[in-house]
Amino acid sequence: MAARAPRAVSEIFTTILRYKTGVAGLAIVLFYVVLGVIGPMVTKYDPVAAVGIADNVALPEWYAQIVDPKLPRNMELYFSSWRVVSESKEGDVRVNVMNDGGRLVILFSGTGASNVSIESTDLYPYPYKPAKSMLITYSIRVSTVDNKTAWYNLQMFVVNPDLIGRNKTIKQGDVTINVPMGYYAFYDEVGFRVAAFTPYSKDIKNIANQSIRLPYYTYNPRQDYRLPEFVNPVSELLLEENTRVGIKINASYYCNPRDFIMRCDSQGLRIVIEPIYMKIYGLAFGLLGTNYLGADVTSQFIYGSRSAIMFGFGVAAAIVAIGLLLGVIAGYHGGRRIDTLLTFLTDVVYFLPALPLILAVGIIFGRNIYAIFAIVVLLSWPGTARLTRSWTLALRNEQYVEAAQALGASTRRIITKHIIPHLTPLLVYLVVLDVPSAIFVEVAIQLLGFGDPGFPSWGKMLNEAYYGGAITSGAWWWIMPPIIGVTTLALGFALIGKALDEIVNPRLRRRT
After folding, report:
1. All structural domains of the chain
2. pLDDT tens-digit map of 139-149
3. Looking at residue 146, what DSSP letter applies?
């Protein structure tokens, strides 16, 4: 005698756990569910907005330990301690340089000209191979005393005292140049130029948290010599293994009330420079490295697992709910007009071209995940409706349904109390099949470039990897995680589906 098909969800899970394939499938799905729930709590990087965390296409940390342990890692440096290196004055000029709680304060007063050179006493050892890029963040306030005018020039450099005095010979094609090493300008207040080499400005400045990334890929007017665009100053002029990195500041002042061209008042000038922040970008970072924007691939993968679970289960639940409602109504009233109408509607929607319509919706309503969710659901329910209709047609002729009808039970009561509970195994099975299908659809939409750019999914990762050059650059750690995630999650649901075959297919049920 055939075993009774289980109706309670607990019975269904008990049946799944009787099979090794079912246990393996549940373990895979639960892994991604837990990863999606807990992962975002422990990752500190936004999967969409957080870029420039490390250098572009940085290797995973563990892989770098295998291939090249000396690859640069992220270094965050703060410069807040200063000393005067040299000072020159002409005329009646007074200079006062102070450290004010980490801020550098330079006061000029009087008439004449002066130049002061200041270096950071914070010289940080650099233990790796040369990095390719760095970020510098600074804040500057320049003000005059009593709203008087004064001319000034302010320059700031990244310096490596261990490389100053050396030259770098660089060749590209037939071009060979010798470039001084050890310093590179990242700020220069270029203003009015007189018959001298030093530019002056009298503009009042208030620059807060200005960030600049080196190298420049165009001509840098702040540098006192022309550096070819193909030269990377970070890797070729500033950084070398077992050297030191610091900051140098040059401040110049000029005030002559009798000067016809550069007239000024002699009350003075105040320059305040907040502690300078420098980040040297590593070429090895985290568990899964970075993408072409320097974003953390690990965070994107973790958030992608959450998005896959939420989108997949959400779409599957909506598909099954709509298909169940229409299929049960059509099946219970089989052969009548309502069945004909619902069957016709199901067939029409079933044969609509889904992907072109999804792309059209994206063009009309924008690349919005909610619009994508809605159109996927509205075009995917006919298969579920057909199956539930066929099952309902068979169940409505069962003796317990006919007995309920004879006792005068309402149609709603018969459907909710007698038919739908017997459809539970089928519904669970359909959800298990629809989840990976929904994930595949979202991945396809993202890969085509019609997905929501703000939705952190595995499909978005694949889109960025494909069009961002992951294949050509050999960045397997960037393109493989979403592929593995989609494949293994689909495998988990396939294994669960295989275990559920015994419940849905009567021919596969165990004999008792």
Report:
1. 9-40+296-508 (1.10.3720.10), 75-280 (2.60.120)
2. 999 888 777 77
3. G
